Amino acid sequence: MIVVKLATEPTNYRLLIFDYQLYNAAMNKKELTILAERVDREFLPFVRKPSRYIGGEINQIKKDLWQCDLTVALCFPDIYEVGMSYPGLSIIYDFLNKIEDVAAERVFAPWVDAEKVLRNKEIPLFSLESRAPLKSFDIVGFSLTNELCYTNVLNMLDLGGLDVRSSRRSENEPLIIAGGGMTNCCEPMAEFMDMFVLGEGEETAVELIKLIRHEKQSGATKKEILYSTAKRFSWVYVPAFYKFKYNGVKIKSFEPDSPDLPTKFENAVVKDFENTPAPLAPVVPFTEVIHERVNVEIMRGCPGRCRFCQASFCRRPIRYRSIEKITEIAKACYNSTGFDTVCLSSLSTADYPKLEELVLQLTKYFQDKHVGLSVPSLRVDQQLKLLPTLLSSVRKSGLTIAIEAANEKLREIINKPLKDKDLFAAVEAAYKAGWQKLKLYFIVGLPGETKEDIKQIVHLSYELARLRKAIDGKTAQINITISWLVPKPHTPFGWLVQKPLNYFEQAKRLILDEKKKLGARFLHFKFHDINRSILESAIGQGDRRLCDVIEATWQAGARFDLWDECFDYRLWEKAFEKFDMDIETAAQRKFSPDEILPWEHLAGPDKNYLLGDLKKAIEAIKNLNQKM
């Protein structure tokens, strides 16, 4: 027998007695601390929303961390309400916990009031399930969903007692891994992560865990584990093994430390999407979250190729689940959660080949249970005209349509095949079926765009609102969201230059002035923060040298940059200036076709293919100018 000491608080220790077998397992694990008593006494009574941090929800999975070979903290760099609405977290949480002797627990970014309590009381950031600090886990994994969550990642590492720089973390500290959409342009976070996992996570999580567990049991060092994964998996990128050389702002070369390491990576793809297990008992939050609903992923990939959309180019190929499988998942999730809405999710739900049949089958089962259907990402075409008559159980509070550009000529340039006649026919059919409100999305800053095109956003929205009068004599209320074009890596528009600040400010004035001229009080415009879009472009197109900027901004107090009440653009400006950079210049950087791109090695479509598609867009602009 052996005595092992487990600390629950600085001055109080409980003695646990382990037999020889458990002792051997414990010797291969890092020190495990459970903070339950401190959290209950010193933390929860002093935060504004304790329900974000208590755990214990219905369908939570809690294993004995002492009994597991490998423990994983799944971190989402935003608050609980946002993270619990992110399907990717639910999928990985479910997959990992199905592996024997592996435990995965959730960690969310604490809001500013909670961070203050953690720092003042010197309580490390902890998981919801066991209330174990980040340092107690073998792996700490982050979901990177947006460039503006990066300061939260650093803050969570620091609150967990970990150095933000991978080079400064010790051998016995966790492996820090990142996945999610931003891994395809992850160089601005390269100094902070030990490893990036590119592409889809279900199968990669299992393979990665298997290898890491084997290596740890063999006594491998952290560097040896990283080297093994880097050699074995084409979807793993370990930035510490690669070096860049620069020539001014341009990249001169990208080379590995060892010749047996790859220099080009691939996105992991789940080939058998039909039979890939989905979470059948998602965690039911204690507090209201962004999306409280059963979320069933019906397909992956998007047949559309909008030239501004990174997801449509990086998340390939297209795969579908059968109606039978979707129905089975929806029923199981409903029975295990009691949610009153089932969402059919994908990048482009309207492109599911048997959507009408699927909706009818789900409606037949759920209608008498007062469960509604949510069908987002609808494409406006002849198919959408048929849908409103079928969706008798869909919530009709509002219909969302991503129009992107206010006229067909601009839509041709961005490769969004939407005809005005189909748009009007679809909206008219929606009004007749009982829809009362519309939500429209537009992008400003598109190539070939003119002032008249910007004004047309208001006129098109006005006509769509007035279209309802012919149905029931009322004018529709329309909410219009305006975003500013951010040229995204791995897209044809990645070589474009973002429009300057004054262009966007002038466009905003044009829209509001045009609305005033029309007296259109029923049009409600919401504009994305222009400075945020500039920052998003600067970071998204940046290389590894931006790591210094991001760390300096975080050290200056940047947190929750996606939140209006926290975002401070001046902090970012100062950090860029500190390293002799200008944020607007970085956002408007122009890449030449033969230049090495900061994301060129990080999976995604072939560079020549994207350049060929960009050429088509440029030709469309030329043809348009010749007609004018």
CATH class of the domain at 24-35 and 48-256: Alpha Beta
Rg result: 25 Å
Q: How many beta-strand segments?
A: 19
The biggest sheet amounts to: 6 strands, mixed
What is the share of helical residues? Answer: 25-40%
Question: What's the number of helices?
Answer: 22
Shape: globular
Characterize the structure shown.
The chain has 22 helices and 19 strands. It is of the alpha/beta class and 628 residues long. Among the domains are: 24-35 and 48-256, 3-Layer(aba) Sandwich (Rossmann fold), CATH 3.40.50.280; 534-590, no CATH class. The strands form 6 sheets. Strands 4-3-5-6-7-8 form a 6-stranded mixed β-sheet, covered by helices on one side. Strands 16-17-18-19 form a 4-stranded parallel β-sheet, covered by helices on one side. Helix 12 packs parallel to helix 14 (420-432) and helix 19 (546-555) crosses helix 20 (569-578). The longest helix is centred in the last third of the chain and has 21 residues, at 607-627. The radius of gyration is 25 Å and the shape is globular. The N and C termini lie far apart (87 Å). 44% of the residues are buried.
